[in-house]
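In the previous chapter we treated chains in isolation. Here, by contrast, the input contains four separate entities that must be folded as one system, with a combined length of 216 residues.
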Amino acid sequence: MENQNAITKIKEAITRNNEVLDALADLYKVFADSTRVKILCALTQSEMCVGEISEFLDITQSAVSHQLRTLKASSLVKSQRKGKNIVYSLADEHVRTIIDCGMEHITE
Amino acid sequence: MENQNAITKIKEAITRNNEVLDALADLYKVFADSTRVKILCALTQSEMCVGEISEFLDITQSAVSHQLRTLKASSLVKSQRKGKNIVYSLADEHVRTIIDCGMEHITE
DNA sequence: AAAATATATGTTCATTTGTTCATATGTATT
DNA sequence: AATACATATGAACAAATGAACATATATTTT
C-alpha cells in the first residue's frame, strides 16, 4: 500500500500543524466579509478615521467601530488619536499582500 | 480641504470596484473554515478521495462531501472519477499561493 | 465645568453556516 | 440483475456572525 502510506504522512502533518491551520482559517475569517475588505482596501490608500469610513461605506458608525475592533484584534490595523479623531491605518504590509493574492485568483 | 478630496476619491474607487471586493470577500469565506483549510492543505500534498479525507479529518463523509462541493463551486478543487472513487485535487496553483500568503502573516 | 464631538460597547435580532442523520444516486463487482 | 461500495443530497438544528439601536466613555472646545 504505497499510497496509503503517503496519506498517513499527510494526515500526521495536518494533525501536527492543527493549531496553525486553525489560526490560518481565523485569519481568513477576517477577510471574509465585504465590509471589512472594503475598510482594509480603503486603508491601503490612506489612513482614515471612523467617521470617514462610516460615511463612505454608508453604514452605522457603530458597525464600523465593531469591525475595526475585529481588525485590530487580528493585528491588521492600528489606531492613533489625532485631535478628536482616532485614525486607523494598516498594521503592516501583509494586508496589502493578502488582498493582492486573492485579487489574482479573481481577475483571471 | 486637501485630505477630504483624497477620501472622496477613495470612496469612488471602492464604489466602482464594489462587485470585485464582494467577490474577494466571498473567496476568503471559502478559506475561512478550518475544515476546508485542512482539506486544501492536504490536497497541496496529494490528490485524495472523499473517504480518505473523511478518515483523516475524522468527520463524517457527508460533511466532507458538502465542503468539497463548496470548494468546487469556488473553483478551488476539481474532481475526477478513478474506479469507484472520486479523487479530488487542487484546481490550480492559486490555492497554494493564497495559503502561503496567509501563513506568512501568522508565522512571524 | 459644561457642552459638543468622536468613538466604543452592550444587547438584540435576523441571517448564515457547518455538522449530523437519513436517504438518494451512481458505479463496480459478483 | 442484484448487491455492495462510494459519494452526493436534503432536512434539521445549533452555533456563529453582522448590523442596528441605545447608551457609555473619552477628549476637546467653549
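The mean pLDDT of chain B is 93. Residues 2-16 of chain B form the longest helix (15 residues). Compare these points with the single-chain example from earlier in the chapter.
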